[in-house]
Amino acid sequence: MLKFPGLRAVLRVDRQTRSADGTVTGETRYFATSLDPGAVSAAELLRLVRGHWSVENGLHFGKDRWWDEDRHACRRPGLAERFTTLLSAAVSVLRVLNPGEPGEPLKAQADALNWDIHRAINLLTGSHL
Fold first, then answer.
1. Residue 113, class by beta-carbon neighbours within 10 Å (0-12 exposed, 13-18 middle, 19+ buried)?
2. Could you tell me which of 16, 32, 99, 112 has the fewest CB atoms within 10 Å of its CB?
């Protein structure tokens, strides 16, 4: 019996990856769910796990890789949360407005707007400075 409110199942996902040089590494991850184990298939659970990692790879990885979010240390209460909220909003705006060339990385689009503040303001406000 699982003694955590709402917890119905714990999943173990084993993964192996092969690097370009042929090195194989293994990793085990555990997931907790409130889904009824009798009502959901293993394939559906795996799809949900992969969906979780698509968010991690699509948003959090990019924010950390390009904006080094994980290394920002804030001692002032609430400042880290505000910074994260602003960065997430900026990334969302870039994705929606897509101001760069087709296929241009998000970071390159952000950098271009950083160098042309008038273009960035025009993009956000629709005004013409």
1. buried
2. 16
30: left (phi over 0), alpha (psi -120 to 50) or beta: beta
CA 64 to chain centre: 9
14 sits in which H/E element: strand 9-18
Q: How far apart are CA 50 and CA 56, in angstroms?
A: 10
Half-sphere exposure of 42 (CA within 13 A, CB side): 2
pLDDT digits (tens, 9 = 90+) for 50-80: 887 776 666 766 777 777 777 777 778 888 7
Q: Are 30 and 52 in contact (CB under 8 A)?
A: no
Q: Give the tokens for residue 19.
A: 């690097």
**How many whole angstroms separate alpha carbon 108 and alpha carbon 66?**
10
Looking at residue 122, its amino acid is N
